[in-house]
Amino acid sequence: MKKLLTNRKLIYILIIAAIVRFYIAFCTGLPWISIDSVNYINQAKVLLSGGYTYYFPNGYPVIIALFILISPIVPLKIGLIIFNIFISLFSLVLVYLIAEKYFKENTFYPLLIITLLAFYPNQINYVRFILTEVPATFFLILSLYLFTINKNRVSAVSAGVAATIRTTLLPVAFLFSIYLFYCKRFKEGILFLFFSIIPISVFLIYGYLKTGNFTLYIDVPKVFYISLGLEKVPGDFWTGISIYLRYLIEHPFNFVIHRIVSLWDLWGFLPASTNGLRATLFFKILIALRFPLLLFAIYGFLKSKKNYMTIFLIIPFMTITFIHAIIITSANENFISNPRYLFPVEPFMIILAVSGIQSLMKNKNKFLQTKS
User: Fold this and answer.
1) Is 350:293 a contact under the CB 8 Å cutoff?
2) Which residues, in sequence order, are CB contacts of 82 under 8 Å at separation 6+?
């Protein structure tokens, strides 16, 4: 900690990042609330009343509930935005510490990484929303950091907490456990999987006691229906899957075309969707930063040593891309390939992208040496 406090460049970056985040949240007049925000707040109120609603997962409503309890001191919405800004800055510190280990105490690349992350447009924009992006990403970053300092069980719990906030992150702990099994680290893999399930199990058991249903959230079938362009189709989870698979079998060409469009709208150079801010060229260009980020990150992954850090860094990308571009997304502008879905992936992709830049610089130096 003392080393961090004496790192002037790091402190300057954090101060400017804090100013930018406070300005975006409090001085621009941009909204804090979306329709999902209202649902999360309502679920938090239900929790405090002794009930349990699972339209959305309840990880974030628990956090909101804590702020409702202190709302007589700090207004709820202001408290949640300040909380977002604080953990966003804390995430920057954790990413710096992770990058130090990844680049073996090299000071330039970790500073480059948190500079890019501190001012990456998507990372700034969603700090102003009362949504799951910032807290889910924080717990995922915390999980990797804790694993780097051999706090594996707490790391697993943190990954599990991230999954209770954003259920699309559920596969992260499972896939990382598979990697540990592959490396013949069987005990670590079993323990990581077990401890990651603890936060999820708490919500499942509590939800069952309150409602009689084992589920993290009830909206699962809806994602299958909307991904096929269907609205208000009744059914449960298995009905949703059966309809989805039947559509795949009966309309394979349309299915593939929709997946390609979704993948492009998720990671492509310019988003195909024109919903909201994506209708303006300026914001399209800002969103388009994800494309070079993707290319550099993939190159960095291919060139990096495939140790536990590299694997952990790539897993969120694999998970989010597969879920949001292949399974539950379509060309429906109002539902899917929204930049917010990439938010938890971006810190990890930036580390890999800078790793790719480092590899390119090494290759350039070797080329110049051979030429001379």
Assistant:
1) yes
2) 74
Task: Domain ranges for the chain, please list them.
Answer: 2-218+251-371
Q: For the chain, what is the largest distance between any 2 Cα atoms, rounded to a whole number of angstroms?
A: 74
Question: Which of 23-26's residues contact partners 24+ apart within 8 Å by CB, and which partners?
Answer: 24/124, 24/125, 24/127, 24/128, 25/81, 25/84, 25/85, 25/127, 25/128, 26/81
Cα separation of 50 and 52, whole Å?
Answer: 7
Handedness of CA 353, 171, 212, 206 (dihedral sign): negative
Please give the model's pTM, rounded to 2 decimal places. Answer: 0.90
Q: Sort residue 229 into left (φ over 0), alpha (ψ -120 to 50) or beta.
A: left
Helix boundaries (H) for 103-185 = 108-118, 121-125, 133-148, 152-165, 170-182
Tens of pLDDT, residue by residue over 170-184, are 999 999 999 999 999
Handedness of CA 200, 202, 203, 204 (dihedral sign): positive
Could you report the per-residue pLDDT of 134-150, keeping only the tens digit for each?
Answer: 999 999 999 999 999 99
